[in-house]
Amino acid sequence: MKILISGASGFIGTNLTSYLTGNLPGVDFYCLVRRKKGMQKEILWEDLLSSGLKDIDAVIHLAGLAHDTKNSQDDSAYDRVNFELTKMLYDWYLKTNARKFIYVSSVKAIADSVTGILTEDAKPNPLTAYGKSKLRAEEYIQQLSLGVTNKSFYILRPCMVHGPGNKGNLNLLYKFVEKGLPYPLGAFVNKRSFLSIDNFNFICRELLTKEVASGAYNLADDDALSTQELFGIIARSIGKKAKVWRLPEDMVRSMARIGDMMKLPVNTERLEKLTESYVVSNQKIKTALSINIMPVNVKDGIAKTITSFVQ
Prior knowledge:
Blueprint: E1 2-6, H1 11-23, E2 28-33, E3 42-44, E4 58-61, H2 75-94, E5 100-104, E6 117-118, H3 129-144, E7 152-158, E8 160-162, H4 168-178, E9 194-196, H5 197-209, E10 215-219, H6 227-237, H7 249-262, H8 268-275, E11 279-280, H9 283-289, H10 298-310
Parallel strand pairs: 1-2, 1-4, 2-3, 4-5, 5-7, 6-11, 7-10, 8-9
Helix pairs in contact: 1-5, 2-3, 6-10, 7-8
């Protein structure tokens, strides 16, 4: 199988190409890049249309401009990268022999906050430039695919992806545990969905090798966790005892606002990410793949990620 992949050098891309190389015999990658990186069969974005490459089986589009929590990006940058490049790539795909197009979007293309459980039936209402650009790319793919019968598209909306080598908010909690610091947010009650990189890789392989209906699919591990449960898993993973403080919520929010002003690691946005509920349903993708459970459960996946921080 010949696959054109963008974003191959990122966290998800390096994990996915490694996984597919080991689990999809004979897979051959063409890497779409902004600048030469020394990977196999590199094609510059600017050279794609003139490359003459048509004899491929699938396209996996991972590249994009991630949500910038520091708000240093111009809103138009999201549109240029997340929409315009996707548009160019999908237009090109429709003219090739490839039969499958996997676009990695985000749950943030649908909702910045969730009440209850997010399903694919939810009406899109992104509030950020990042989410709006992702949704615009989704809508373009869906509109252009109307009436196309010999090709398939898969819009994947993962929640927070984790795995060895990826840190983010998990790394902040890990540092708390590692240093013996207490978790001060025990008074907050929440549930969040996560997605193990192993489950993401498995889903991509299944989509590449099975006949699955085109459409948009939310991606998440089977179970959601509270941040307090997450803190406990981290502690057990590194042989520490979890210490939990239940400070008054108002006090914690005041401390977070101080963090905003002093540019500390714990600020209002980080507090929101740690304490908000964001539960994502994965039932549609499991039904499409004819599976009852994901290969990796959320607790094992989190423990694997945390263990990688120690090494």
